[in-house]
Here is the input.
Amino acid sequence: MRPHGTRFLSLTAVAAAAAITLAACSSSSTSSGTNSASKSPILIGTSLSQTGDFSVDGQAFERGYNLWVQNINKAGGLLGHKVTLKVLNDNSDPATVATNYSQLINVDHAAFVFGPFSTLLTASAAPVAARNHYAFIEGAGGGPLVFSLKLPNLFAVSPVVADQLIPFAQWVAGLPSGERPKTAAYPMVTDPFAVPMVQNAQKILQNAGIKTVYSKIFPAENPAYKAGADQIAALKAGMVVIGSPDVPGVQSIMQAFMQQHYNPQILAASAGPDQGAAFLSAVGGAKNATGTMVPNGWYPGMQNALSQQFVKDYIAKYGGTASEINADAAEAYSVGETLAAAVNATKSLSNPKVISYLHSGVTVQTVQGPAKFNAVGENVVATHFIFQWQAGAKFVQVLPTTAQGSVAIVNPKPPWGQG
Here is the structure.
């Protein structure tokens, strides 16, 4: 009996050893990312404005996020894990966005979360992620309100908002006296994205001797765009800089100007004209858009290999032309690229490791260009570009004049319908 029992025990030991060896091989292949078929998918969650004031932007962000998910999965996923995206609608409401991120983290147990649209919503959402030790990479929350929170988990991949109109203001201030507008108007809506940007530009322009004839901040709940635009038209301001976070505000003011047959020499907006086909449709077509200027960190003609591939992939998935691509989609796509860079570098799906890596002084590459973050999450290497709609529905880079790809600015702005 003993020899039989000894043999039985030996076979058992061999089987156990084989099982351990098999398990080790399986574990090794999982950690190395060479056996993605055996890996479970991971969930990434986000809250976007599918309805409400920011719906145009929210829908563009969703396109950008979905395109990144498609492409990362084609490349094998994150460390071999396929990515699924869950989007909750915040209806452009700060209270709802905070609730949504709490659900995504504590109920849905998302592996990572991506930011919403706007400084306003990011300021409500990012602290929820911080309390749960989640990295919060975002593309549209670059206003001072967000950075004043001094959160250790926040990374804003797009250019710092407050500085975005500075190249525009410096260009106007540097025009020969005969070409420089004598007066300026600054209609703004109460928004932590729009107001700081326009007010910084206003200071530069006033110091250059351009007289402010109108400067007013409208309440976000019921902005008096029409009345303000009519007043500006009556004052015949030589230049108008609109502080708006979205298309509807710019649309309202431009339509009122057209009705009053008032055409400013120079027209710029903090946001809206960067939103491709959505903007063109809102203002009645390309001929009304021509001459309008806007800041941003990206445009479809950007001389960046990642951006050029993004444009091809976007058109293949959604159709349209390059000029019609909303810059919000590129901002969203950059969020995914930044996460992927951190995950690949750390070989980990750990939020604390992602946070530590992105705070280590590294520079990651995105469709918007390089991103490197300071202690509060500002991208300190982003370039601040100014873009302009020009004849033939062309959305082009015009500032800085020394930047590769910049073209001559159309000045003065052509009359409505003649661009």
Q: What stands out?
A: The first strand starts at residue 42 and ends at 48. DSSP finds 14 helices and 14 strands in the chain. The longest helix spans residues 2-32.
